[in-house]
Amino acid sequence: MDLWYTEKQTDGFGITAKVKRTLAEEQTDFQRLDMLETNEWGNMLVLDGMVMTTEKDEFVYHEMISHVPLFTHPNPKHVLVVGGGDGGVIREVLKHPSVEKAVLVEIDRRVIETSKQYLPTIAGTLDDPRVEVKVGDGFMHIAESEAAYDVIMVDSTEPVGPAVNLFTKGFYAGISKALKEDGIFVAQSDNPWFKADLIKQVFKDVNEIFPITKLYTANIPTYPSGLWTFTIGSKKYDPLKDATYQDIDTKYYTKSIHEASFALPKFVEDLTK
Ligand code: SAM
Question: Is there an atom of ligand 1 within 6 Å of 108 CB?
Answer without folding.
Answer: yes
